[in-house]
């Protein structure tokens, strides 16, 4: 699909979600439309994960048609999402929960920017100049161990507690989202995904697949297909968003004609790291 982003850019996006090869239910949800491109992953070990992720996405869906968004708008809707997930009925002593990550259209000093938001261990990446960089920081036990120098990044990939998240919508106290502003540059590509992708493919392979596929829908399809071929042990969801300059509108419209995420296959510049303070 194509969306306008400020006065000079258009966005072309594609998305794919699949339950994986071992799961009976897809607990991932996403929205990739208008001003917002986000993924929520109902967490394993929590009841009603599919309901939780869907509730979080529905809470932010009103942002879709609002154009350029302020951080305060996003945080306010995340608070609504938190309340919605907390209200889900589960068995005594257990609670629903979900990760939440992605990008929304924003501005800084009149210039188009991405606002990256993250709670949990789903990920948001930026590809610029053919190089892939993880923008979000995983809220997980192993990420804390890596940051502390206790284990290496390689050890984290197989650590027995690698799936334990330290922040999630639905937890209490309410989690504080991480927020960053990233310049919106024509030619750049943003990738938002659940850990069903990153648990199967290394970042280097994700980057290769992204370089091999010019269209965002093709790229999303290919990444999900590779994750499934690699084992598909979890639900996998991928959203790919390309930034296209205004003069590229005709090409963007053509790309938008690529089939979207709903078909019978479905089951359901370097970063400017300015973490916002005093928001939320």
From TrEMBL:
Region annotated Disordered sits at 255-280
Give this protein's Gene Ontology molecular function annotations.
protein serine/threonine phosphatase activity
The PPM-type phosphatase domain covers 12-243
Q: Fetch the InterPro entries from UniProt.
A: PP2C, PPM-type-like_dom_sf, PPM-type_phosphatase-like_dom
Stretches of Basic and acidic residues bias are at 268-280
Any idea what this protein is called? Protein phosphatase
């Amino acid at each position: 699909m194509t969306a306008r982003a400020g006065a000079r850019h258009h966005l072309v996006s594609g998305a794919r979600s699949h339950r994986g090869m071992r799961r009976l239910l897809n607990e991932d949800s996403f929205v990739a439309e208008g001003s917002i491109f986000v993924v929520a992953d109902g967490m394993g070990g929590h009841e009603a994960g599919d309901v939780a992720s869907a509730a979080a996405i529905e809470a932010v869906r009103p942002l879709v048609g609002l154009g350029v968004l302020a951080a305060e708008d996003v945080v306010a809707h995340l608070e609504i999402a938190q309340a919605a997930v907390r209200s889900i009925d589960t068995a005594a002593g257990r609670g629903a929960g979900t990760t939440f990550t992605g990008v929304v259209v924003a501005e800084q000093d009149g210039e188009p920017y991405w606002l990256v938001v993250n709670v949990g261990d789903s990920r948001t990446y930026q590809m610029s100049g053919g190089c892939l960089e993880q923008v979000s920081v995983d809220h997980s036990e192993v990420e804390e161990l890596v940051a502390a120098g206790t284990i290496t990044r390689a050890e984290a990939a197989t650590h027995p507690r690698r799936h334990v998240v330290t922040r999630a919508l639905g937890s209490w106290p309410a989690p504080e989202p991480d927020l960053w502003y990233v310049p919106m540059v024509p030619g750049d590509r943003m990738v938002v995904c659940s850990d069903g992708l990153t648990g199967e493919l290394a970042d280097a392979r994700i980057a290769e697949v992204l370089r091999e596929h010019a269209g965002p829908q093709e790229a999303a399809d290919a990444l999900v297909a590779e994750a499934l071929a690699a084992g598909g042990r979890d639900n996998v969801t991928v959203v790919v968003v390309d930034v296209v300059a205004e003069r590229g509108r005709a090409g963007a419209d053509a790309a938008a004609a690529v089939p979207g995420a709903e078909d019978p296959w479905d089951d359901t510049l370097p970063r400017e790291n300015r973490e916002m303070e005093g928001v939320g």
